[in-house]
Amino acid sequence: MGKRKKSKKALMIFVAALCIMLAYSVFSLYVYATDIDNTGDTDERTYEDEPGESESTGELNDTNIGNTVTIALNNGNGSINGALQIVLILTGISLLPFLLLTLTSFTRIIIVLHFTRQALNTQTAPPNMVLIGIAVFLTMYIMSPVFNQIYTDALVPLDNGTIELDEAFEKGVQPLREYMYPQTEVKDVSVFMEIAGYEDWDGEPDNVPLQVLIPAYVMSELRTAFIIGFLIYVPFLIIDMVVSSVLMSMGMMMLPPTTISMPFKILLFVLADGWNLIIVNLVRTFY
After folding, report:
1. Does residue 263 have a cis peptide bond before it, meaning omega lies within 30 degrees of 0?
2. Which residues have C-beta within 8 Å of that of residue 236, sequence separation ≥ 6?
3. DSSP assignment letter at 153
4. Beta carbons within 8 Å of 79's beta carbon, 6+ residues apart
5. Nearest CA to 108 among 68, 147, 135?
6. Could you report the per-residue pLDDT of 181-230, keeping only the tens digit for each?
């Protein structure tokens, strides 16, 4: 036991001595500014020259700028540096789901497909992933002229350096405005214009701000989708009522009517070529 106590005591003394040496070495450190010009003047600056200005990208390398970030547009030709393009692309990709939900036909399509599945009472057939996939590709089909116009009028000139970023934004938004306004009801635009304080709106589409047009368009899309969903529900509701009446007349009240009506719904849907009727006419509502 005595040897253990001595060894522990020696170890503690060694650790204490090591801590004292480390603390002494840290507190004895000093930081000196670099005297590059050999003038004996060592101030707190870590650069040799004063921060300068450059009138061209060629002079940018000759200036000594401390603790700043400078972005050059590829020798002044208007194109963005590759690393910055990657950052902007990744930022745009993160915003794509919100743009897909609010600025395209995706909202109306996915709601109508959901109502169709609910009316058939098939629960998870088709699955959610299938419905979303159908809605995405139908959206690409409907919005392809708009996307092509945005690419031609805004992205290509911006990449070539013929237009500035603000002008590219205006040219890129214009095709979306031309698509959204015909799908938006005037009463929705008027309500949001009044809420935003634009009470003297003259009814012209070009005078509607984008922050007003987007929520008005979303509201109109929801209204249109629910109207179409109601029309889809009506024939299947009639089948449910007929089946329920037959079961009650036969005294089979404990049997759920939906169990009997679902095969008849599927049969009616298949015989009427329901998917063709719904998808084709749904796409036609955007033209």
Report:
1. no
2. 119, 120, 121, 265, 268
3. I
4. 73, 159, 160, 161
5. 135
6. 888 888 888 888 888 887 777 767 777 888 888 899 999 999 999 999 99
